[in-house]
């Protein structure tokens, strides 16, 4: 079959008519499923796939941080539920096999935007936990956990407002340490420091989130 013949068959094929091509997204197919419904289903699946890929990337980056802190590959493999060769392969794939010359600083009071965003995230999670999921910020942090929300400036501002509302309306139920942490984080986010770091923003958020939660639980 020549290319011209193939194109002619395609033009004659049922389902290739101008009427079908022009069908709107809300028009139902023979089995009652609209293009809009199919689009939403695929979008949800794409979100899960993207989240999985990003979590794998984050894990690989965290492994590099842990090696830089002096942890052995055997220890990291045990904690991550991986084999030692798998850990070694990830490090080799990123050109890292040994301890970093300058280990990452893990003090809580750092002032770059990703670190402060991670602290805000951890604080919001602790507020939600203290209020048994009834906090105003609960649904927002659940969306962050499922990767349905990104750390854009607009989303960070929205999370700040929700956290502040919880702190104001539920003050009697929350420790003073939560308000103190928020005040520090909020001031930092108003004018974050310009910091050049070897680690990605995702890694810095994840570590700050964990450290902030542990600090609040220790208070």
Report what the structure shows:
The protein has 219 residues and is mainly alpha-helical. It has ten helices and no strands. The longest helix has 34 residues, at 35-68. It starts with a helix and ends with a helix. Residues 10-26 have low confidence and may be disordered.
Q: Outline of this structure?
A:
The protein is mostly helical. It is built from ten helices and no strands.
Sum up the overall morphology in one term: globular
Note poorly predicted spans. Answer: 10-26
Helix/sheet category: mainly alpha
Gap from first CA to last CA: 77 Å
Largest sheet, if any? none
The overall strand count is 0
Helix % is 55-70%
How is the quaternary structure best described? single chain
Count of runs of 4 or more consecutive helical residues: 10
What is the N-to-C succession of helices and strands?
HHHHHHHHHH
Strand-residue fraction? under 5%
Radius of gyration: 24 Å
What's the average pLDDT? 83
Give a topology summary.
Layout: H1 3-12, H2 18-21, H3 35-68, H4 73-80, H5 84-93, H6 113-130, H7 138-145, H8 153-169, H9 176-190, H10 201-218
Helix pairs in contact: 4-5, 6-8, 6-9, 6-10, 8-9
Based on the model shown, name its key terms.
219 residues; mainly alpha; 65% helix; single chain; globular
């Amino acid at each position: 079959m020549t290319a011209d013949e193939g194109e002619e068959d395609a033009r004659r094929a049922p389902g290739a008519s101008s009427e079908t091509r022009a069908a709107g997204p809300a028009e139902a197919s023979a089995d009652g499923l609209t293009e809009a419904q199919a689009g939403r289903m695929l979008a949800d699946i794409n979100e899960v796939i993207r989240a999985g890929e990003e979590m794998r990337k984050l894990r690989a980056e965290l492994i590099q941080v842990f090696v830089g802190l002096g942890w052995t590959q055997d220890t990291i493999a045990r904690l991550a539920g991986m084999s030692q060769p798998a850990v070694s392969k990830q490090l080799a794939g990123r050109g890292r096999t040994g301890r970093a010359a300058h280990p990452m600083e893990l003090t809580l009071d750092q002032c770059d935007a990703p670190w402060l965003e991670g602290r805000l995230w951890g604080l919001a999670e602790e507020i939600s936990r203290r209020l048994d999921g009834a906090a105003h910020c609960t649904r927002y942090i659940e969306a962050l956990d499922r990767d349905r929300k990104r750390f854009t400036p607009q989303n960070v501002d929205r999370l700040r407002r929700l956290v502040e509302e919880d702190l104001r309306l539920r003050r009697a139920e929350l420790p003073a340490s939560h308000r103190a942490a928020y005040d520090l984080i909020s001031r930092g986010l108003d004018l974050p420091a310009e910091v050049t770091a070897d680690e990605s923003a995702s890694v810095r958020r994840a570590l700050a989130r964990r450290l902030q939660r542990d600090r609040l639980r220790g208070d």
